[in-house]
Amino acid sequence: MADTIAAPRPQADRPARRTARTRRRRGPLAYLLRAIVIVYLVMLVGWPVLMIVQHTFATGLAPVWEALTDPTVLFALRLTVFVSLAAVALNTVFGVGISILLVRYDFRGKRTLSALLDLPLSVSPIVVGLSLILVYGGRDGWFGPALESAGFQVIFAIPGMILATAFVSLPLVIREVVPILQEIGTEQEQAATSLGASAAQTFRRVTLPAIKWAVVYGLVLTLARSLGEFGAVKVVSGNFQNQTQTATLLVEEKYQDFQQGAAYSVAFLLAAVSVACIIVVSFLRPDTSRQR
Questions:
Q1: What is the rounded distance in angstroms from the CA atom of residue 13 to the CA atom of residue 3?
Q2: Among residues 246, 232, 20, which one has the least CA distance to residue 131?
Q3: C-alpha triplet 288, 120, 165: angle, nearest 5°
Q4: CB atoms closer than 10 angstroms to residue 55
Q5: Among residues of the chain, what percentage have pLDDT more than 70?
Q6: CB of 226 within 8 A of CB of 153?
Q7: How far apart are CA 271 and CA 266, in angstroms?
Q8: C-alpha dihedral, 94 to 228 to 65 to 44, nearest 10°
Q9: What is d(CA 128, CA 164) in angstroms, rounded to the nearest whole number?
Q10: In Å, how far from its chain's centre is CA 232?
Q11: Distances from the Cα of 269 to the Cαs of 74, 78, 264, 276, in angstroms?
């Protein structure tokens, strides 16, 4: 009887709590915070990007097309795409593997490893480039002389550019996959294992379908980050035209050479691809939540 009387109380309290939440959402402080955030984002992100668009098309489409079809620009764009896709492939394999290791296994040094994964986000890309030279440099590096004597040049070549790009974008996949692995738990994987599934079958039929959209989102972020990487790639590439010059390096060179039309055109293309990646993922992600 006491339970019967006590039961309606939570329902009676719901409108009051809902009203309180509504007031918190629609109060003056909420509008003020919203206005501050919008102004901050516009001044920090929206306005500079808008300036790039305005300067790119200030003289029409013909100069933009002429700049983007220049052989030097085309080579830089192809090299940028190749390096970015290679970095995405590396981070797909190692990002998913490291995520599973961190979530599914306990071992000594786990917290240290997790902290190290944030290092690429906190360290300057210039430092990353210099560290890669110290390790893989052909003259004084730890492994560089041996690798070059075997005919494999890393620094001032494409392999070094791929390593630098993969380094700076590695956490993007891991930080998307780890929360999903923690959320789905291990019950389904244990059930599959108890039914005789191998580790590869469990991963392919149970784990991968559950984390596939997190992987996709992380890969798109990795691609967008890789397309715009500048500092680390500049240090390890040497910036040789038609050899190791990516699109971002070309933008800097064109701008310093007072070829600002070409610089704005390539910068606009890079920004447009990155924004398109984010928009595509933004449309994909709600579908995954509805499926779950």
A1: 16
A2: 232
A3: 80
A4: 16
A5: 88
A6: no
A7: 9
A8: 140
A9: 7
A10: 15
A11: 12, 13, 9, 10
What is the rounded CA–CA span in Å between residue 87 and residue 222?
8
From residue 155, alpha-carbon distances to 131, 138, 216 in Å are: 11, 7, 30
Amino acid at 19: T
* pTM (predicted TM-score): 0.81
Residue at 109: amino acid letter? G
What distance in Å separates the CA atoms of residue 161 and residue 83, rounded to the nearest whole number?
Answer: 7
Residue range 154-193, pLDDT digits in tens: 999 999 999 999 999 888 899 889 999 988 888 888 888 8
Per-residue pLDDT reduced to its tens digit, 228-275: 888 889 899 888 888 999 999 999 999 988 888 889 999 999 989 888
Q: Which of 174, 159, 290 is nearest to 221 (CA)?
A: 174
**Rounded Cα–Cα distance for residues 221 and 226 (Å):** 8
Q: Is 215:172 a contact under the CB 8 Å cutoff?
A: no
SS3 track for the chain? CHHHHHCHHHHHHHHHHHHHHHHHHHCHHHHHHHHHHHHHHHHHHHHHHHHHHHHHCCCCHHHHHHHHCCHHHHHHHHHHHHHHHHHHHHHHHHHHHHHHHHHHCCCCCHHHHHHHCCHHHHCCHHHHHHHHHHHHCCCCCCCHHHHHHCCCCCCCCHHHHHHHHHHHHHHHHHHHHHHHHHHHCCHHHHHHHHCCCCHHHHHHHHHHHHHHHHHHHHHHHHHHHHHCCCHHHHHHHCCCCCCCCCHHHHHHHHHHCCCHHHHHHHHHHHHHHHHHHHHHHHHHHHHHHHHC
